[in-house]
Amino acid sequence: MSVPFRAHARLLRWALVTAVLAAFAFAPAAGAAQVGDTYLALGDSLAYGYHAAQFKSELESKGFVEPATFNDGYVDDFGATLKLAHPKLQIVNDGCPGETTETFIHGSGVPGTCAGGPTGTPFPYAFLHHPYTAGSQLADALAFLKANPNVSPITLDIGANDVLQFLGSVCGFPKTFTCSPAAIEAEFGHIAANVASILGQLRAAAPKAQIVLIWV
After folding, report:
1. pLDDT tens digits for 141-152?
2. pTM given for the model
3. How far apart are alpha carbons 140 and 142 in whole angstroms?
4. Per DSSP, which regions of 69-165 are E strands?
């Protein structure tokens, strides 16, 4: 997938995410969404606020990356908006660049990293906003929810990297496109099943939380 196309797709995703979360934040009082003492953000590079050029620059100049400098993603904007009415709200950002539904559930397979998987690139825990201790983003989220019962909202953006990796590693895109309609249908079915499993486990762990799913 070309860089301009991916940049455009990322911009579109960010715009849609912002619109969805703005609607949540400014819900009418009569049906206002519940806000607890912590906002838990889950997902991939969009949740993290990742910028490839900034990441490369920091890594080359300092030998490490400061996650706090990646602070202009939708999680930061949404959290700041929520804090206007809830100034004591804590924000926990578990977002991991490159995360797929598979690695979200099962982990990267490489100790000390998230994302990755068969065709992805592992991302060091040390560079995360909220480093994991439980082996996968889902395991960390479930442990956090168990220890902190008043979490709401929870946002989740996941699935886009599954599609990107599938297109590149299985279909040969953009050089060619060898996937059949049946293969595409099966992949999307697998992604949907993973997302349903994730949401089910989050709902069981936080039955009163507002959960916002973003997949664009």
Report:
1. 999 999 999 999
2. 0.85
3. 6
4. 90-93, 113-115, 122-124, 151-157
